[in-house]
Amino acid sequence: MSERTERLSVRKTYKLFIGGAFPRSESGRSYVVTSSKGDFLANAARASRKDARDAVSAARKAFSGWSGATAYNRGQILYRIAEMLEGRRTQFASEVADADGVSAKKAGELVDAAVDRLVWYAGWSDKIGAVLGSANPVAGPYFNLSSPEPTGVVAVVAPPAGPLLGLVSVIAPVIVTGNTCVVVASERAPLPAITLAEVLATSDLPGGVVNILTGSAAEIAPWLAGHMDVNGIDLTGADPELAVTCEELAAENLKRVLRPPADRVDWLADPGIGRMTAFLETKTVWHPIGI
Amino acid sequence: MFEYAPAPESRDIVDIRPSYGLFINGEWVEPQGEGRHKTVNPATEEVLAEVAWAGEADVDRAVQAAAKAFPVWSAMPGAERAKYLFRIARIIQERARELAVLETLDNGKPIRESRDVDLPLVAAHFFYYAGWADKLAYAGFGPDPRPLGVAGQVIPWNFPLLMLAWKIAPALACGNTVVLKPAETTPLTALAFADICRQADLPAGVVNIVTGAGETGAALVNHPGVDKVAFTGSTEVGRLIAGSLAGTRKKLTLELGGKAANIVFEDAPLDQAVEGIVNGIFFNQGHVCCAGSRLLVQESIAADLLEALKRRLGTLRLGDPLDKNTDIGAINSAEQLARIRELSEAGEAEGAERWSPACPIPERGYWFPPTVFTGVAQSHRIAREEIFGPVLSVLTFRTPAEAVEKANNTPYGLSAGVWTEKGSRMLWMASRLRAGVVWSNTFNRFDPASPFGGYKESGYGREGGRHGLEAYLAV
Amino acid sequence: MTTPLAEVASSPSTLRAFLHGLPGVDRVGADARAAMLGTRSIKTTAKKQAIDMAIGMVDLTTLEGADTPGKVRAMCAKAVRPDPADASVPPVAAVCVYPDLVATAVEALAGSGVKVASVATSFPSGRSSLEVKVAETSLAVAAGAAEIDMVIDRGAFLAGDYLKVYEEIVATKEACADAHLKVILETGELATYDNVRRASWLAMIAGADFIKTSTGKVSPAATLPVTLVMLEAVRDFLAATGRKVGVKPAGGIRTTKDAIKYLVLVNETAGPDWLDPDWFRLGASSLLNDLLMQRQKMATGRYAGPDYFTLD
């Protein structure tokens, strides 16, 4: 009897996430992703400007349905994402440990925090309007009501560090209010982002609400920043030089810009509501009162 | 003719125990006294189960358990409390059909309503307040609002599980612990909820359920260990509670009776107005505190509207509440049926004209046909007193000002309806109606995100929405 | 011939005033009512009854550019004997074809009792002259069509030229002679329920025997709430004038479950008097086989498979 050989594992191909599907980059390019120790992990797709363009189209197409869904429905779906993420805790912990070089225990905590972050934002879906909206006592016979509404399609440059918690922390506040987004994942550690896409794809989230591109932020982000059908851009993950370039480009159609934080972000801290308000418009309705 | 064959929902899905104890400190315990009470299916008068009748000593145990659980529960990070409530919401969704059948058996409401209205709202309410548990600092009650302590909650029989959700979800989200007493005729879904708390691994003592009648409720609200009282029920009992809490530090919210006006203008969307009138008064057999029990119709369209309404009432299906096609179920108790009969007879005696569609009434159980009184004057008892049954009083008006005057001419102020296609008139009416909820071109809509509660003798405090948190916070 | 309420069409302004004086339709409320009726549970004997009733109300339809005499003859055979294996299945109400294929259908259906309906008036867009529309109607009638399914001029309707729409219907009705006139409102293009109600009354005043939701070429085609609004209109029109008009939802009704929802809607809105092929039709093609599959399931207790039903 021959000695039993060790089984060869089947590796996963990491692709992009656009419109609910997992295409390769139209450019056919990929790049090597290594662990924090420098070991080969996978070849990730290197998205091109055309992939970014396709992702924006997908996000735009998804916007009316997603923003028109009830807040309750959006909250349920975010909560469902949290449930699915929790179910893949081990897988994410291992990917986060590889990518960040943190201990297994710390990686587990980061995954837990990502799950809790989703739950926190899920609860905001049907409350942000009550907190930010108002009945305005104007001086005249008018009903006057202000309420927050989503900005539209938002480009997000995800933070390079915190490949899961950081990523979830920038995506959830954008979509919970009804925006759709195109995310440029951490260039160095993109694999958890694509695994997160698998979670999103199986959580009743409509295709196109979140689109995830892997590759070079410096290459893709300016195309998104200059795209005339993008309404806002979150530059959290952009380096200072890229951030200025993108902000300049974003000025052309007056995108709402969330600048990179001045200090290093502690993703474990209470996030506050600033990431939601950055991509909300206030709509005020006037109506006469009289018989 | 197209007759719908019987389409009964299976009751095999529910497992009712022959007898129930009290749910105290996470355990089923026997009451100290001998008191027991049978809960019946009002559609058949069949005994469903025997439940304990909690006495003062039992209530004391429950309050102690809640008080003991309070430091742990209130000190827990909001995000963790939230996750318990999300769990409960999910379990309710998973067990929704079972709970709907149980609710229908115990209450008599049609399965279509318990399935499509009560249960989805129950789950949604827990989801909603789960989300508040870690966001209280944003609710507008200060940077670090604190819970009150032990909440004593007494709920009615018309929406047993939904009223439980309205009480327990915000209380727990804010960090309070609770002792809840369901109504004596409808305890079963509350007892099922106790089991849900166990499935959710909710810490012992956070939720305690004591069954019983008025004395149990009185023992609970008057217990010195209770910091907050929430009551939904009749104005009569609400008044007693408010009086008995005088001089204490207990915070009190009351959701009481109503005699809502449903006001239909001549430019209303008529077919939808007819639906709204039907939904306003015949939903849940009229066992709704915010029911549109007074129809105020503009005189110029009164005849046409009444004709359309009567035609529509002819299509209502009264009967087996478990039948999926039933629109009108059973009256919840013999006592309530007697009250509806008494007031209806008074309506006739006072000169109003009584009408019901041809509608066979089952032989067993408690039933009352959908009934419309026309020619009703403001002075009639059926225009002033809450009937809490499927009885509509129709009055007419000529001008918007007269409609407002008549609508507000009641000690109640829970809700009102306005039907008009003219937005400015609707808002003019809404600004003048003395009622906590004004529905326009709709009626009997509920949502966890929307505050609900009354003016005047319909009570005080709001349940639902951001506003609903205030009742359970030290603000 | 005078039709009830014809005097309201004496001028553009009187017609407009009448149509705009109809009570509004609140969309949310109408949707909620239709959805509630959609929850009715029709089982066992009621379902059996409903399936046969629905089969007898089907206007089996083919309206493709690729239609041929062969296709139409095959469909006619199916219309007369929907399930060759089961003679207890009733025939459908009618077949619905383009005008040039009416003669083929008439020949194929001779003596069967199944009626031949033809679309006309430049179906589906209606974008042609009145002369052409009338001529096309006459052509179909001359070829033996017992029923004409005309389209209204939605452009004129949306532009507020109600009188033009009215006059086209009157002219088409005249060209119909003894044939029944079904007026297609194309509710998917009218967009609002207020418009659906107005167009329903406009068509009835102009002499429609039936009002029909859709051509099937525009999305959305028939929906429950639109049909609800139309059923309310025929109910109210009967009360106001004493004349009864039929209703035909068409397009998008593919399953037995859908068809039964429509029957419930009829039963509880216009009333059981309308539950008759003379007063209610279902414009459909693939629906018929689903009805047959469900019928077989009721009879045998086994779920049916599509391979056992003919595709014509």
Automatic annotation (TrEMBL), chain A:
Chain ranges of the Aldehyde dehydrogenase domain:
27-257
Q: Which Pfam families match?
A: Aldedh (PF00171)
Q: Which organism is it from?
A: Microbispora catharanthi
Keywords, A to Z?
Oxidoreductase
Lineage of this protein's species?
Answer: Bacteria, Bacillati, Actinomycetota, Actinomycetes, Streptosporangiales
* Name assigned to this protein: Aldehyde dehydrogenase family protein
Matching entries from Gene3D superfamilies are given as: Aldehyde Dehydrogenase, Chain A, domain 1
Gene Ontology MF annotations: oxidoreductase activity
SUPFAM superfamilies the record matches: ALDH-like (SSF53720)
Automatic annotation (TrEMBL), chain B:
Keywords of the record: Oxidoreductase
> Is-annotated flag, keyword Amino-acid biosynthesis?
no
Q: Which protein are we looking at?
A: Aldehyde dehydrogenase family protein
Q: Which InterPro entries match?
A: Ald_DH/histidinol_DH, Ald_DH_C, Ald_DH_CS_GLU, Ald_DH_N, Aldehyde_DH_dom
What PANTHER family does the record point to? ALDEHYDE DEHYDROGENASE-RELATED (PTHR11699)
Give every Aldehyde dehydrogenase domain span.
Answer: 28-474
Identify the catalytic residues. Answer: E255
Q: Does the keyword Transmembrane helix apply?
A: no
Which residues fall in a coiled-coil region? none
Write down the PROSITE patterns for this protein, in alphabetical order.
Answer: ALDEHYDE_DEHYDR_GLU (PS00687)
Family (UniProt) = Belongs to the aldehyde dehydrogenase family.
| Entries under Pfam families matching the protein | Aldedh (PF00171)
Molecular-function GO term, any one: oxidoreductase activity, acting on the aldehyde or oxo group of donors, NAD or NADP as acceptor
From TrEMBL, chain C:
Keyword set includes Iron-sulfur: no
For this UniProt record, the keywords arranged alphabetically read as follows: Lyase, Schiff base
Its BP terms in the Gene Ontology are: carbohydrate catabolic process; deoxyribonucleotide catabolic process
The pathway that the record names for this protein is: Carbohydrate degradation; 2-deoxy-D-ribose 1-phosphate degradation; D-glyceraldehyde 3-phosphate and acetaldehyde from 2-deoxy-alpha-D-ribose 1-phosphate: step 2/2
Checking Gene3D superfamilies in the record gives: Aldolase class I
Q: Please state which protein family the record places this protein in.
A: Belongs to the DeoC/FbaB aldolase family. DeoC type 2 subfamily.
Quote the protein name from its UniProt record.
Answer: Deoxyribose-phosphate aldolase
**Which source organism?**
Microbispora catharanthi
